[in-house]
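Methods: holo model generation. Sequences were used as deposited, without trimming of termini or removal of tags, and paired with ligand SMILES retrieved from the corresponding compound records. Each pair was processed once, and we did not select among multiple samples. The sequence and zinc ion SMILES for this entry were:
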Amino acid sequence: MPEIPEMEIYKDYLNRCVKGKRIDEVNVLRAKSVNLESTDFCQVVIGRLITEIMRRGKYLVFQLDDGHYLLTHMMLNGRLFYVTTENLETLQGSTSNQSPKALMSEIVHSNAEDLRQRIKGLPGKVSIVFGLSDGSVLLFCRLTLGYLHYLGQDQLETKLRELGSDPLDPNFNAQGFSQLLEGKKGMIKPWLMNPKNIAGVGNAYSNEALFRAGILPTRSISGISLTDKMNLYNSLVTVVQESIRLGGDMEEPFAPWDDFTGGYNPFFGVYDRVDKPCPVCHELIQTSVVGGRNAFFCSHCQK
Ligand SMILES: [Zn+2]
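and the model returned the structure below.
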């Protein structure tokens, strides 16, 4: 599942590629992925300008020029894909005498099978397509559990109010993190992964942060010293920032020209590395189920 680094990379790409553009055409191929009737959704979204893209936890928020927002969550499998008019011209089945806008319109209103055949590198079945004012196309793929909701400011605030602190929030620090853990019971890893405590941290980066801090995923919160809490906060922020800098761990690129996404994959110390040597002590990485998810750890480096 995409976590903070992957969504932050999407946010940066979207601000570079779609910010300031108008949504000229919309096709909802999976009606359950939107919160209105498909025709109503198209009606309110078409003609809107995308003024900004923001991230909160694992959510992306598209700010529109009518005071509303599009809130998207990728959940387990959701992916974004972006193609420019130049990319579209090289698509299978495109004819050179078509204007870029006509080609964009044809692509937006294709069915999922046609899109799969025509767009090389598409990360999966398309759920929603946006045709933008410059003829480029933004595709929301595999939103089987994920969604794209059109919300007013109050609705958005209510939804985001449920979220805990974001590790990249400049107003959040090691002291605030330690305070959140004060008096809490239970194991540390499920606590870290609960979005009501910390927003945007999932299985991959909770495992990595705990490894770097030398804390076992099963450690009881009440037994963690103040120094270790500070270390854990710093480890979490560092691993998230490193991953953003190197491209995150998502396998599917954002666009045909994107060779940055996924660059952090080889750098995981423990996550998804069972029976491989620990990068610090060379003992084999172990796994066990903690709070319903796979924990990965080094029993020598983590206590
Ligand atoms: Zn080790």
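Residues 26 and 43 are 9 Å apart (CA to CA).
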